[in-house]
Amino acid sequence: MDVKKYLRNWAEVYRKDLTDNIMPFWLNHGLDRENGGVYTCLDREGRLMDGTKSVWFQGRFGFIVAFAYNNIERRQEWLEASRSCIDFIIQHCCDEHGRMYFEVTADGKPLRMRRYLFSECFAAIAMSEYAIASGDESYAQRALDMFRLILHYKDTPGLLQPKYLPDMECQGHSLTMILINTASRLRAALQDSMLDQQIEKSIQALQRYFVHPEFKAVLETVGPRGEFIDTCNGRVINPGHCIETSWFILEEARHRAWDEKLTDLALTILDWSWEWGWDKEYGGIINFRDCRNFPPQDYSQDMKFWWPQTETVIACLYAYLATDDERHLLRHKQVSDWAYAHFPDPEYGEWYGYLHRDGTVAQTAKGNLFKGPFHIPRMLIKGYMLCNDIFKKHEE
């Protein structure tokens, strides 16, 4: 493989897809110029299907447009879109205790609160990235205050409703892994020992509790001390989440001058998760597997969603940057070729989100409360950056 030619091609694809396709779609169709923030419930053509706003995406898109501003091109409309989403969060999306809602109306009336802390995580990374873009350090302080609130709710027994009743004590992979990335993004804007401590705490928890070598897998749900729970939910492997975890750890390993133990941990998780996730018959990363190979319970278990493919693209590039091992680029080629052959909509733009196992489109909407402008543009921005990082490494 001509590595330089291969990566130059993909760097150009990533930049062009971001600036000419994904960002215009959401700025033209999703940005709410009346109330502020962004709509995500859009049909194939970009028509609004539902004015309900995902609070996750106020933070997610607020982060993405600032991240693009900081790393791709300093476009004023991107900076203004980020500010619009963040202002909407501040004005409408928090209760009297600082907790954030999951859904609000178009003009910001609260509709639903969930037990999870993901809205807060996405708001924090939006504020920290906007602080870098705008130079306004007050947003970095807001982000740090939000992070303190997240840890307070996470670590204080009784503040968050448990997922199960007391006879089923457990803990989940999702918050553990996302706090690595949340703290890392905040650390780019400001320094606080709490951020490094939480990253280390999350990585240790992943190793101690969620990494199960007996299955060569990272499990989504385990007991309080990492016990294997032999139920349908306890046996779930989510390859996309695990692969996302691998690149979060690789990013931290790079921050620590390619710490060997962290790099090895991340590459092991990536290898395991590729084996569980890559569909050898149809291609693409599959949704769910059972660690004992029983039939998975989730009805979407054999579908191909957009986001596991994007996480795999990033992870493979990070793995190649770490190792110069071309097998990671071969995997990158497999997942990238498959994703670009099936997800983009050449007629109306953006990507489909939900495919059947064979790659045919399951439904044509471009967004809802869970799919919107985050995973795809993050992949495009990170992909472009990582390709250039690899070029620089090989020139040194």
Automatic annotation (TrEMBL):
Gene3D superfamilies cross-referenced by the UniProt entry: 1.50.10.10
Pfam families given in the database record: GlcNAc_2-epim (PF07221)
Main EC class the enzyme belongs to:
isomerase
| Biological process (GO), any one | carbohydrate metabolic process
Q: What Enzyme Commission number does this protein have?
A: 5.1.3.8
Q: Which GO terms describe its molecular function?
A: N-acylglucosamine 2-epimerase activity
| Coiled-coil segments | none
Query: Which InterPro entries does the annotation name?
Result: 6-hairpin_glycosidase_sf, 6hp_glycosidase-like_sf, AGE/CE
Q: Which PANTHER family match?
A: N-ACYLGLUCOSAMINE-2-EPIMERASE
Query: What protein name is recorded for this chain?
Result: N-acyl-D-glucosamine 2-epimerase
Organism per entry = Prevotella dentalis (strain ATCC 49559 / DSM 3688 / JCM 13448 / NCTC 12043 / ES 2772)
Q: Which gene encodes it?
A: nanE
